[in-house]
Protein: Ran guanine nucleotide release factor
Organism: Echeneis naucrates
Amino acid sequence: MSPHPLFGGALSAVIPHSAADVSELREIPDNQEVFAHAHTDQSLIVELVEYQGQIADQDSARYHFEDIAGSNKALEPGAFEVTSVTALPKSDLLLSECSSAWMLTGTQCVSKFNEEARNTVTLHLGLLRLPQFSTDVLITFNDPQSISSDSSSAAAVGTHGVPWTVEDFQRLLRTLTLHNPGLFG
């Protein structure tokens, strides 16, 4: 598998099979690269966000997870849960510029497109901290576990595509490479 250019080639990473670039379908913010699985309701987002220097490294992944829960309107009790947070050894990563790296797994009960129906999604979050560039690289893998029959995503249930795995997500994290630091301004 060869690396896929991200952010105009400033970064690259190995993206899983069956990935469709969502920017070809709708407008995506400049600080994000978004991929959707061609046959399931899974998605991957590589996002450049402001480095949160006031947040300790060991708390940073949880901070971003809770920020995403807020954006997903999933902050009420029982709507989100963190199941694990682990430090990733820098020796396992191609992004040698990061000061620390973290992986979080949790669940969120979210709705798509402001629908009433809520889906239970396992969210795998990778966080690569780049304080020298005032940037946190946030990589999220949204893996639906339970999709409401009233959700617009219900049509994706039961399709024949091979879903992405946590290993696919971890490969993306490990292979993320910086080619042009000018990306960070």
